[in-house]
Design goal:
seven-stranded parallel β-sheet, 20 strands, about 45% strand, mainly beta, about 180 residues
Length: about 180
């Protein structure tokens, strides 16, 4: 399958390989070229392999969106492996997000993400990022290694204070704080 857009109340995706190879013209490109895009549903992604040539591997967006990703591989996406955006909730468990051109996991615009017993590695930027005020990233019992810029970025300065909750994780030496990525 090339692309899945979720706008139903409940959906479960199991044992799928989803690779979005769509190559739009330059003026066609928008933010929604994800392997899986969840805009208003509750979805479970179990034992899937997901990538996207033009966007996020998995995008969940909106206050009515919640996503549970388990035992899945998210890799080689042009943007972040998983993006949790605009008030969405996401739990990632026993999964791998690797070799993405931005981050393993990106949480922004009031998103809430829990990453548990997962691996975030060899991404071009950070393993995980929390970008904005009222954004929360929970990391517990993960392996975060080999990301080109650093393990975790939490945007905290005099104007922005993203939230992070850290449990036991390997590969985090300290939080990276800056005003820009």
């Amino acid at each position: 399958s090339n692309y899945i857009k979720i706008e139903e109340l409940k959906i479960k995706l199991c044992n799928l390989t989803i690779k979005n190879d769509f190559q739009p013209e330059k003026d066609e490109l928008n933010d929604y070229y994800a392997g899986i895009a969840n805009f208003s549903g509750r979805a479970i992604i179990n034992n899937c392999v997901v990538s996207s040539r033009q966007g996020w591997g998995i995008l969940t967006q909106g206050e009515d969106s919640s996503l549970f990703i388990t035992k899945s591989l998210i890799k080689e996406s042009k943007l972040s492996g998983v993006c949790v955006n605009k008030g969405a909730f996401c739990k990632i468990e026993k999964s791998i997000s690797m070799e993405n051109h931005k981050h393993g996991v990106c949480v922004q615009k009031f998103g809430y993400c829990i990453v548990n017993k997962s691996v975030l590695m060899q991404n071009d930027r950070y393993g995980a990022v929390a970008m904005d005020d009222l954004t929360t990233l929970e990391l517990e019992d993960n392996e975060i290694k080999g990301n080109r810029v650093g393990s975790v970025f939490v945007n905290q300065n005099d104007k922005i204070h993203a939230n992070v909750i850290l449990g036991r994780n390997s590969g985090i030496k300290g939080l990276y704080e800056a005003t820009k990525l």
